[in-house]
Amino acid sequence: MDPLSDVLSLLKLRGYVSGGFDAGGQWVVQFGPHDGIKFHAVVLGECWVSVEGVPEPVKVRAGECFLLASGKPFRLASDMAMEPVDARTLLPPANDGRIVT
C-alpha cells in the first residue's frame, strides 16, 4: 500500500461520501463545521484553503491534496479578499457524487 492508504486504513472508516465541485473566475466558498475528516484534491488550477483558528491560509495547486480532520469551518477560495458564499447555497443537501459547477 502507499503511505496515504496505510494511514486511511488505520482510521477504520465506517462510511464515506464523495463528490466535487468545479469553480472558475473569482470565488470563495465557506464550509461549516463537519463530522469526521474531509479529504480534498485539486485536480486543475489552484486555490486557497483557510481553516477557522489557523492564522494563515495555504495555497494548494493541481496535483496536491489536503486532509481536514478538526471539524472546524473552512474556506476554499481563488481570492481570500472576497466575501464568501455559504456552501449550503451551492451544493445539494444530499451529496450523490455529482460534480457541482
Question: What would you say this structure looks like, in words?
Answer:
The protein is mainly β and 101 residues long. It is 8% helix and 32% strand. The protein contains one helix and nine strands. Strands 5-4-7-2-8 form a five-stranded mixed beta sheet, with no helix packed on it. Strands 1-9 form a two-stranded parallel ribbon. The protein is globular. The mean pLDDT is 84.
Low-confidence stretches: none
CATH architecture: Sandwich
Which structural class best describes the helix and strand composition? mainly beta
Shape: globular
Features:
101 residues, mainly beta, Jelly Rolls
What is this structure, in a nutshell?
By secondary structure, the chain is mainly beta. It contains one helix and nine strands.
What is this structure's SSE topology?
Layout: H1 3-10, E1 20-21, E2 28-31, E3 38-41, E4 46-51, E5 58-61, E6 65-68, E7 74-77, E8 85-86, E9 99-100
Parallel strand pairs: 1-9, 2-8
Antiparallel strand pairs: 2-7, 3-6, 4-5, 4-7
